[in-house]
Design a protein that fits this description.
single chain, mainly alpha, two-stranded antiparallel sheet, elongated
Length: 234
């Protein structure tokens, strides 16, 4: 994607943001977005198929830039393939010396992107259902959290005798639903972020819950550890 193309998309996105801070998103038309920057509606459709795609693009673009600026390249995670957002990192996995996942700074960066445009995102997240940013985030991050769970599972199994690793893994795959845990914790953090945006009097989550700022991955690590211990005993 060329610099000119990115700038053209950002101009349209900024126009949409300004309108979204003035009125409900459903009231915004493509003509209004284009007219605000002196462009024809065809310019909008050259870059975006609809308003929902614009919303997702702006989210992914600004989050990707923030992640690239704050974290080492080797920790960043991108989508597979050559989709429209493949050049933007959307997640990362930071680990400490014990292979513990410490992703509190990622969630801080993610929330910072929303906080920067609080009024806009409050309007965006007021729209529910398929095609919305909330729905997109659930679909985007559920597989990433599930990959983290399987990483934590591998970490636990490496601590066990090699003889029992195979049987323990099979038992865990049957008894422990990584998909369920990923759904639960993805829904929890997305819902929490939306709540924070809707109540401006609240402080930033990362400040409020310290020293439990890594609560998602520490909780996942503990759950995986408990399940491995139980199944190995059996």
């Amino acid at each position: 994607m060329t610099v000119r193309c990115i700038q053209a998309k950002m101009d349209l996105a900024e126009s949409f943001v300004q309108l979204a801070e003035e009125m409900p998103i459903d009231h915004i038309t493509v003509n209004m977005v284009a007219d605000r920057i002196g462009k024809h509606r065809k310019t909008f459709y050259y870059h975006f198929s609809n308003k929902d795609q614009l919303i997702i693009w702006l989210f992914r673009c600004e989050l990707g830039i923030a992640l690239e600026q704050r974290f080492p390249a080797e920790s960043l995670i991108y989508e597979h393939g050559d989709g429209p957002f493949a050049t933007f990192p959307y997640y990362l996995r930071c680990t400490d010396g014990d292979d513990r996942i410490y992703n509190a700074r990622f969630f801080d960066a993610l929330y910072g992107c929303f906080e920067r445009r609080r009024a806009y995102y409050r309007n965006v997240f007021s729209k529910l259902g398929p095609g919305t940013l909330e729905h997109y985030m659930l679909d985007l991050y559920q597989p990433a959290i599930e990959d983290d769970i399987r990483y934590l599972l591998d970490r636990e199994l490496r601590k066990r005798d090699i003889i029992v690793q195979g049987s323990a893994r099979r038992a865990i795959d049957n008894a422990c639903s990584a998909g369920f845990l990923a759904d639960f914790f993805t829904g929890a953090f997305v819902s929490r972020f939306i709540q924070r945006l809707n109540y401006s009097a609240m402080g930033r989550t990362i400040d409020e819950i310290s020293p439990y700022e890594n609560v998602i991955h520490d909780s996942l690590g503990w759950l995986v550890h408990q399940q491995v211990c139980r199944l190995v005993r059996e």
